[in-house]
Design goal:
Blueprint: E1 3-6, E2 13-20, E3 24-31, E4 35-43, E5 92-96, E6 107-115, E7 138-145, E8 151-160, E9 165-174, E10 180-192, E11 200-205, E12 213-218, E13 222-228, E14 241-244, E15 255-261, E16 266-272, E17 278-285, E18 291-293, E19 298-300, E20 303-309, H1 313-328, E21 340-342, H2 344-347, H3 353-366, E22 370-373, H4 402-410, E23 417-420, E24 424-425, H5 430-434, E25 454-455, H6 461-474, E26 482-485, H7 507-525, E27 530-533, H8 543-546, E28 551-553, H9 560-570, E29 579-584, H10 593-603, E30 608-611, H11 619-641, E31 643-648, H12 650-653, E32 655-661, E33 667-674, E34 683-686, E35 696-699, E36 705-707, H13 708-713, E37 715-718, E38 725-733
Helix pairs in contact: 3-4, 6-7, 9-10, 10-11
Length: 734
Amino acid sequence: MSITITHPQNSKITTQAVIRTKNTMYALGIFADRFPVHLYYGKKSRSADLTYRSWGSAFSPYYPEYGDSYMATTVSSEFPTFGMGDFRAAAIRVRDLSTGSDATEFSFRRMKKYKGRVAINAPIYGELPYAEADENTETLEMILDDAVTGCELHLYYTVFPESDVIARHMTLINKGKTPVSLEKCMSLCLDIPDTKYGLDLISTYGAHARERHVDRYKLSYGVHRITSRRGASSHMENPCILLCHPKATEERGEAYGFNIVYSGDFLDELEVDPSKKTRVLIGLGDETFSWRLEAGESFTSPEAVMTYSAHGIGEVSRNFHRFTRDHILPPEPFERRPVVLNSWEAFYFNIDGKLMEDFAAGAAEVGMDMPVMDDGWFGERRHDRAGLGDWYPHPSLFPDGLKAFVERAKAKGVKFGIWIEPEMVNPDSDLYRAHPEWALAAPGRVPLESRQQLVLDMGNPAVVDYLSDSFATCFKDVPLDYFKWDMNRHLSPVYSNVLPPERQKEASFRHMCGVYELFRRLHALFPNAMIENCSGGGGRYDLGMMKYSTQIWCSDNTDPVSRTYIQYGSTLGYPTATMSCHVANHGSSIEDPRKLNYGFRVALNGPLGYELNILGASDTAKATMSGQIEEYRAYEHLILRGDFYRLLDPFACGRYAYYFASADSRELLVTYLQNHGDPQKTVYTLRISRAIAGVTYKDTISGKTFTGEELRKGISVESDTEGLYAVMWHLVAE
């Protein structure tokens, strides 16, 4: 069993729960049969210190019956509330609307454990995305209540032992007689004790076409917030964060990882208090969220996840990779992942049925599996100023209909995909002219446009019904295999015409619930189709989108030099199986053998695709791409399911190196990528720790052999004077 519940004798901790994963242990207790306190999170050990500690602190409120044996602002709390003595960041803030008070105290009532997990039900539509249970999954449920408001709080700890991941969420039920307002909602709290050395925070930041660049710095006293107020997880911030010992490396030192299974506004809040304790909170936050609960109503938060490793940052990443592959990503829709050829960088809006049929034939000729018809096929969409929201094929582009066109394209020997952007509307569209009230806009304010488009209110059920009905009609009997779902602007202002004034801070969360509902309906319409998510590239690269999307277009920036940085940062929290990587034609680079090879080697960090005009490629370039696809198929199983190890950090040295290892370590794929020339010809040593001592490996690319000991000591690679240089080793045990 992963969870044990005990009742210690002669202790201030009256109930204790211990959660064990493959390599970690988490312990919590109930002080005086009343307050849930945190005891331990770290390496699994029989000698782990589970002692409850408290100390007095001047100016700190206390309960008279407990004195300094329980002061809310000094203890390690499992789920701290607002207004009852803890002056640090709170996990939950509930306002009693009958009195206006937001002082809340939840007292312990009971806890239970069970196999499996509970579903996370959204207050509108259906479910929120969450991790799927397997035969090893167990859940600890703790129930608390507030005698004054009548609210009941359920805290859930769902354990995924093989991934070393614990998922957490909460449900608040108003069992009182008057309404309350949930004004801060976090899914996870962890108080990490003083490590003597402090902790480093590792996060990723960026912008459109510059996503997930890595930032690492030492946490100082005070509050640190990583947040999105954009209605999306965003290009600018990502909810996945890591904390580690200042000297932690990829393979050494303590490290923690945190994330949330959600795609909208989020808050990662960290506070280092005067005792050097670090509080970590992950959830919806308080700036763009609140929720009114009438008597009898409930609200459930999104799911947050955490992991720990005593063996470095890389192991935290691999824990999250395994967890996402095994419990988040949808089932693979095809026997093998299709190599996609997208039309956008080839033709932009200038497409028609005949051109796309030729495009499909060109894809088939070189061994690509899935031509995708990007923007420009529907309504009056001949540019980005019109047509969004009018989901019908333009009759002049497809004179005999979309179904007949797709059937002809697929007759070339390929699958076929199509681009959609459901959440947006152009002011110049039939939809907006008929329903301007369906777009987000503040009363009395000019609607704010971005890319000449507005955002549809996905929290309005009429909008979701319209979109699902439109797609059902437009794609009826059309044999589509793939959808590229795009989202090309953020939410502002966030105001819903279907909500009363007092509920407007619910609009952003309701919007995200509507997005998830439309994903589910599209899956129901096309159960065998693959969805690739996109938000101007990597603007919603998160676990919520990964629940519905087999892979995600990680950036609109397809320049291979830029991609090395973006892809490195993406692997901190997400598996390479999700990271759609394309070879693109920058300045006729596909006709330059060196550039084409380098673009391909960079793209082998994830599922392979192409973003170019295959019809304009030379026979030589086509032959090269055919060979690339054949080579990719030899490595695909490692890229999609192998264990991933980072070796060189491009942010630190301008070089990116990594390797994949099979589960038994008998197959390894090592890559070295160099963006810029180095006249010094620096020698780098790539140490392959997963190589097996006593085993001989043969490199299928060069024909050379290496012993496991040699690989563990390291492969030497000399930097190139010109740059755009790549070396790979595909090592197979003999």
